[in-house]
Design a protein that fits this description.
It comes from Streptomyces spororaveus. The chain is mostly helical. It has helices at 2-6, 14-22, 35-44, 49-65. α2 (14-22) packs across α4 (49-65) and α3 (35-44) runs antiparallel to α4. The radius of gyration is 11 Å and the shape is globular.
């Protein structure tokens, strides 16, 4: 998901926000590609509900893409 997500860094959207937050994060999960892994990381970083919703939206689109 990480490589796919990076493509959205220039977008003005919840997914773009997530991509910009993930890019400089050295702890951003590189796998396995499971929503729970990414959600746990985002929650551990103190994410607000809007960030979690953005992650959910990104995951739904990622699953369609993959």
């Amino acid at each position: 998901m990480s490589e796919w997500l990076a493509a959205f860094a220039g977008e003005s959207s919840a997914i773009g926000d997530l991509a910009r937050d993930a890019a400089p994060d050295p702890g951003w999960p590189q796998g396995p590609d499971e929503l729970g892994v990414f959600r746990e990381h985002v929650e551990d970083q103190g994410a607000v509900e809007a960030a979690l919703e953005g992650l959910e939206q990104a995951w739904e689109q990622y699953e369609v893409w993959s």
